[in-house]
Amino acid sequence: MKNILFICFLFIISNSFLNAQELKSPDGNLTLTFKLNNDGTPVYSLNYKKREVIKESKLGFIIKSDIIMNRDFKITETKFQSENSTWKPVLGEQKEIQNQYNELKANLVQEKSKRKISIYFRLFNDGLGFRYEFPVQDNLRHFIIQEETTEFNLTGDHKLFWIPGDYDTNEYSYTTSKISEMQSLVYNATHVPLAAQATIKNLATQTPLMIKTNDGLYINIHEAALKNYPAMCLNVDDKTYSLSSHLVPDAVGNKGYIQTGSFTPWRTIVVSDDAKNILASKMILNLNEPCAFEDTSWIKPVKYIGVWWEYFTGGGSTWAYSDNQDVVIGKTDFAKLKPNNTHGANTKHVKEYIDFASKNGFDAVLVEGWNEGWEDNTAFKKERIYSFTKAYPDFDVKDLSDYASKKNVKIIMHHETTSSTAEYERQLNDALNFMTDNNYNAVKTGYVGPIIPRGEHHDGQQMVNHYTYVAQQAAKHKIMVDSHEAVRPTGLHRTYPNWFAQESARGTEFESMEGIHPDHTTILPFTRLMGGPMDYTPGIFQGDLSFYGDKKNKLSTTLVKQLALYVTMYSPLQMAADLPENYIRFNDAFQFIKDVALDWDETYILEAEPGDYITIARKTKGKQEWFVGGITDENARTAIIDFSFLPAGKSFTAIIYEDGKTADYKTNPQSYNIRKMTVNSKTKLKQKLAASGGVAISIK
């Protein structure tokens, strides 16, 4: 009997061993192990340079109602393949991207139900991407996901840079803590005033999630190619240090409506022992599909100003044309309403912005509050809030379009939906035709407040499909899209390069409200920007809002740090967000904003530590010029800027915009100095940065 048991035990071990598959990254530093455990559950683990990154973690799904698809599998086939190619993004941080990986595909079937699933693992030098495929099969066609049971089991009580798990917003401040400290901090993290909130009841966090281990590994968990699927948050077990997928539900609690013959998004784990490599990673882009358009000549970077910040300063400018609170779109004759005389989007004022843009070399002017409906922009309680084709009486669309054209400036359309997306889709075709007819080629969309259809969430499957639909429809009209309050990006700007920027995080506008912490912009590139460019709207020179009236808010940065953000916060859409008169007051510092490029041949991450500091250099696309940006948190520091990225044997003139000797974000934020120096590839500059300060360098 003992011999029989021993033979059975050997068979189990042997069978498990035969199931185990190992995959290495092209450089050999990362190792993925995949197998089925004794329950027939697919599991994976990940090592980096022989150090454990992800412990054995389970994979699979539960399908409604309680159909288990995370156990009782057997492996029917495994396939290995490799790729090493390059591709060129339409707009980007570098002109060419290498796509090199080794792939394992495992086909699985449940022995009793005969249901099938396939799992793809792609191992790059910078991390792991994996996704599920639901193959076409006889006994599974349409189904509803009850939950995805993907795990990311961490190896210890790591440091996290996190925002609370939420179905409707990414606009929280970041908290830095150990996993074990999250529960004591989550109440204060979530109890903040935001336009729409649906916090997850259990302990959870959003992605991209940045992690630093106790032994110095940097790990970033996110997703790539989010299409026709809900966004993924992460449940947190603060006792076992385990993370697991938490999909955003719809109005009736379902997680996703799936048809076989489809894929999930990729789950991504970027890992390195050097924080600079996290920022340099292009894995999420590589996991997205190539560009969907043959002609991309109309997709251009845009540097803009706008009728925007004046609404936040407390100076009195308003989005609304009148003070009447009882307007009805399609019935109210706005020409008969009494103007409030504080409406910012009027023809005369917009022409002043166009003149300033033209004089200073800007591409475009954003105008918010141009269209009917701002008097009563009540979220959730009212469905038809705005017209997207009818302007207020004091905004002459044709005159302004002609005026801007003569000045070689574009006007950026603004479509705030106040999250009545059902109504926006009804008007979308007319709105895009209106834009085409009036020479608009870019639109800023907004989704403030709870979603209509009611009960849906900003990050659920329906809204994920909505954002993609808007980008696709806009492309048919050769229109670029900048979406605010949308689901966080997952690299889809590779597939739809006209969707060239998003907000989807806490941006500059919060400096005028609840505020932004000094370390915020040293965390965002490691979190939100991992998925794609952010329209952060930097460039505020007059940071003390008491300058305008009764507001007591103060910016959390020095003036020079505002300049540096144009380099450290990548986006092909960049706003000079302050009022024109403040740029006239600080015209010498304004020169950097006018000069800085938006599209790049190369990017060099010179220094980086999440939550502390970032220094980045970039080479302008097609030109022999470079720009450097360095920022720090609330602690002053000395940045070490190594100019070895410059061509050897040549000297260049660097214009350095630096914090003044007495600069401090609290007491003296507008203190700065501008100097020139000659640099070459052997130059190493020790540059002092003030508390929440920065440095910006232009090299030609």
Rg (C-alpha, Å): 26 Å
Mean pLDDT: 96
For the sheet with most strands, the description reads: 10 strands, antiparallel
Helix content: 10-25%
Low-confidence runs of at least 5 consecutive residues = 1-18
What distance separates the N and C termini?
Answer: 83 Å
Number of continuous helical runs = 12
What is the percentage of strand-forming residues?
A: 25-35%
How many strands appear in the DSSP assignment?
37
The geometry reads as globular
Question: What structural class is derived from the secondary structure elements?
Answer: alpha+beta
Subunit structure: Monomer.
Keywords: Calcium, Hydrolase, Signal
Cofactor: Ca(2+)
GO molecular function: hydrolase activity
Question: Explain this structure to me?
Answer:
By secondary structure, the chain is of the alpha+beta class. Helix content is 17%, strand content 32%. The model is unreliable at 1-18 (pLDDT under 50). A hairpin with a 5-residue loop joins strand 8 (97-110) and strand 9. The strands form 7 sheets. Strands 7, 8, 9, 10, 13, 14, 16, 17, 21 and 22 form a 10-stranded antiparallel beta sheet that branches.
Can you describe this structure in just a few lines?
The protein has 700 residues and is of the alpha+beta class. Helices cover 17% and strands 32% of the residues. It starts with a helix and ends with a strand.
